[in-house]
Amino acid sequence: MLQAFSKSKITHTILALKSISLTHVNTFTYKTRMQRLYNDGLDVNQQSVEINPIERIRRCSLHKDADIWTFYKTMCPNVRTLGDALYEGYVASNDGPCVGYLESSNDTESLQWLSYSTVMERSRYIGSYLWTKTKLTPMQSKVAIISSNRPEYLFVEQGCYMYGFIVISLYTTYDLETIQNLLQRTQAEVLVIDNLERIQSIKD
């Protein structure tokens, strides 16, 4: 799934191969389908409310009045880190669907799901690779990610959480100068990308 193509003293660059193809779908159709399948009574036009006008902090409207720390401890008492969250979902759902993606076949699109165990396995594989091959240090090393919205992004992110690496998310709209500047400022040791063309001139 991962292919290392460049290694320097500062940054390892890794390419997440396109093992899953994603396509766009009409927003209205998707929203209608989700509302039909998962009608939880939440107004999609008011999914969150602002609780801090200065910093513009927002919270889910279903729990806008709850004490957040007490709520988390009651709802997920076994979750202490971001790395625990995926396993908590695995247990609660009995290894149910975790990540959905669109698959195209014969001009038709269908929503496919990856189970929690599959996502955990792929995430653990990536985290292990980063730890053993690039010699990252838990709680210290930083991993930068430049990727479109796709399952592999989650695999890399969760793999970092499992092994205690710090995740730095970079927008796909950043130009090369901005990317280089942020990599230097954050001292990221690994850069994971979904498309080599994004940094082709750096690689050359």
Describe the structure.
By secondary structure, the chain is an alpha/beta fold. It has a domain at 1-17 and 116-204: 3-Layer(aba) Sandwich (Rossmann fold), CATH 3.40.50. It is built from seven helices and nine strands. The chain has helices spanning 27-37, 68-75, 82-93, 116-133, 151-163, 176-186, 200-203, and strands at 2-7, 12-16, 48-52, 57-60, 97-105, 108-115, 142-146, 166-170, 190-193. Strands 1-2-9-7-8 form a five-stranded mixed beta sheet, with helices on both faces. It has a two-stranded antiparallel ribbon with strand order 3-4. It has a two-stranded antiparallel sheet with strand order 5-6. Strand 7 (142-146), helix 5 and strand 8 (166-170) form a beta-alpha-beta unit. Helix 3 packs across helix 5 (151-163) and helix 4 (116-133) crosses helix 5. It is globular. The relative contact order is 0.17. Mean pLDDT is 81; it is low at 1-10 and 17-27. It comes from Didymodactylos carnosus. One of its GO terms (molecular function) is long-chain fatty acid-CoA ligase activity. This is long-chain-fatty-acid--CoA ligase.
Number of helices: 7
CATH architecture of the domain at 1-17 and 116-204: 3-Layer(aba) Sandwich
- Please give the largest β-sheet: 5 strands, mixed
Strand line-up across the major sheet: 1-2-9-7-8
Q: Give me the Rg, rounded.
A: 19 Å
**What is the helix/strand order?**
EEHEEHHEEHEHEHEH
Strands, count: 9
What is the strand content? Answer: 25-35%
Features:
9 strands; 7 helices; 5-stranded mixed beta sheet; lipid metabolism; about 200 residues; Rossmann fold; EC 6.2.1.3; two-stranded antiparallel sheet; disordered N terminus; fatty acid metabolism; alpha/beta
